[in-house]
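Kindly review this record before class:
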Amino acid sequence: MAGTWGRFNIASLVLGFAFLYLPIVLLIIYSFNESRLVTVWAGFSTRWYVAMLGNRGLMDAAWVTARVAFLSATVATVLGTMAAVALTRYTRFRGRLLFSGMVFAPLVMPEVITGLSLLLLFVAINFDRGFATVTIAHITFSMCFVAVVVQSRLITFDRSLEEAALDLGATPVKAFFQVTLPVILPSVVAGWMLAFTLSLDDLVIASFTSGPGATTLPMKIYSQVRLGVTPEINAVCTVLIAIVTVGVIAAALVNKRREVLRRREDMALVASA
């Protein structure tokens, strides 16, 4: 019976990973296809990567997407961290329930509603849609994800470290930046990376809030896919997959190095004691 359950678990795991990653593997393989037909393999070639680099529309959209993602992720990280600190440290203040609901509402709200609401807001205040409106929209929906990640770390944070800094004469702001922030920094970085990835991936909200000269890469890809998938689109998607993969691996290596250094410090303290 144990062997049967073991084979069943292995088969389920293999089928699950195949379902998730086989389409991505096929996309990467066919991005190196010589043929223009994405379903017909005609040999290995990098011609579509060269064509991608020469496509002015795709490159402009990629540049807009990168700027929006970096700026929105940075601002969302600052605001999300502040919101997480307020919700964790100040558990009793008037309007806390309303504030918490407003912070986390985008997590459960459909993107269509968020995009339409922001569109109506920009139209009502006569704010021209463009780069700024897309950035504001991405800050709005990604800030809550940062708040969730940082709040989960602050809940387990040892407040005695901060209190010791305050007893030694540090101001609350100085104690936060010199004691609290270095400890929760991995969660802040994780929140930034999550917000950056969500901004790169967003299509629905950007479609509602973008304007002339602010076409993002997902919007550009979607508009071209409706006319038919080309290996050039496969090349663009492969580059995006590579960027995200490198970011995830780099973050994992940094966290592993920090963990190794922390263990060495703990061992040194134990040895000195």
Q: What stands out?
A: The chain has a mean pLDDT of 83. Residues 220 and 226 are 10 Å apart (CA to CA). The chain is about 80% helix and 0% strand. Residues 231-272 form the longest helix (42 residues).
